[in-house]
Design brief:
Elements: E1 9-13, H1 18-29, E2 33-38, H2 41-53, E3 58-62, H3 68-82, E4 87-90, H4 105-133, E5 136-141, H5 154-176, E6 181-187, H6 217-229, H7 234-247, E7 251-253, H8 259-271
Parallel strand pairs: 1-2, 1-4, 2-3, 4-5, 5-6, 6-7
């Protein structure tokens, strides 16, 4: 929990677009100094330039969060530039899926590398800094797909469920040592972002392979684009994140009307299942 954000330092990964950019903009509007990280260098430079042009103190650091050395370098750059870090948003993420037993290994490596290992690296690189100063807040971006298990989103679901339990474990371990460092796990529903186009940043060594069979991946992607386009404005998500940092809220479900899906899953677990089948994957 950090009540007064003025003059504080926020680090946001995946900050060149979508929720990450909206968080960077909102933090800057609150008077924070912002470190923006993203693997998409031209988009990062444009976003940081726009924020800096509006009067914010901004540092842009091109970063592939799947690489631990680059995340370590991001932490050093933040401290070198601003002397401290107060809020860390492990937000970078990509989408990927298909029929589970047909998903190519390259898809698994790519999605888990960014969505899961990116958060692991962020915790490893930044949490010691926050613990040492006994103040700060970590925001890990999961998804409603981290609290449910929709079909055809296997790698994404696995990565986001892992982010939820990472966040819960981090919260418990910090509490056990009496730390004042707070944790929020962000679980958005449909948000108007470009996550359905995240292949644009896919590394060549993990180039997409064609699955042997299963539902048409482009058809699934088209459905995703339709629902994402009608989703919540990223700025509204960012406003909820700022409130969570100020109040110390742990679980942040941006779409309250979707809480019933979580309750349904918990009832199925308590009663021995099976889990609900079908439905559209919430992202």
């Amino acid at each position: 929990m950090i009540g007064d954000l003025l003059g504080r330092v926020a680090v946001v990964t995946g900050a060149a677009s979508g929720i990450g950019r909206a968080m960077a903009e909102r933090f800057a509007a609150e008077g924070m100094r912002v470190v923006m990280a993203d693997v998409e260098r031209p988009a990062l430079e444009e976003a940081a330039g726009a924020l800096g042009g509006a009067g914010a103190e901004v540092l842009a650091v091109p970063t592939d969060v799947s690489d631990p050395d680059q995340v370590d370098a991001l932490a050093r750059a933040a401290v070198d530039a601003f002397g401290a870090v107060d809020v860390v948003c492990n937000n970078a993420g990509v989408g990927g899926g298909g029929q589970l037993w047909e998903v190519p290994l390259g898809d698994w490596r790519w999605v888990l590398g960014v969505n899961l290992w990116g958060v692991i690296h962020g915790i490893r690189s930044f949490v010691p800094l926050l613990v040492d100063q006994d103040e700060g807040h970590v925001v890990n971006t999961a998804s409603m797909a981290g609290l449910t298990s929709p079909p055809f989103m296997g790698p994404y679901n696995v990565s986001k469920h892992a982010v939820v339990t990472l966040s819960e474990t981090l919260h418990a371990e910090l509490a056990m040592r009496g730390s004042k460092v707070g944790v929020t796990v962000l679980c958005p529903g449909w948000v108007n972002t470009r996550i359905a186009e995240s292949d644009r940043n896919r590394p060549a060594e993990l180039a997409a392979e064609q699955p042997a069979a299963g539902p048409d991946r482009e058809a699934i992607r088209g459905v995703l684009r339709t629902f994402l386009a009608a989703g919540m404005d990223p700025a509204d998500v960012a406003a909820q994140v700022v409130d969570a940092v100020r109040t110390g809220r742990f679980y942040l479900l941006t779409h309250e009307e979707w809480s019933g899906m979580v309750e349904q899953r918990l009832r199925a677990i308590a009663e021995g299942g099976p889990p609900a089948a079908g439905g559209l994957p919430p992202v």
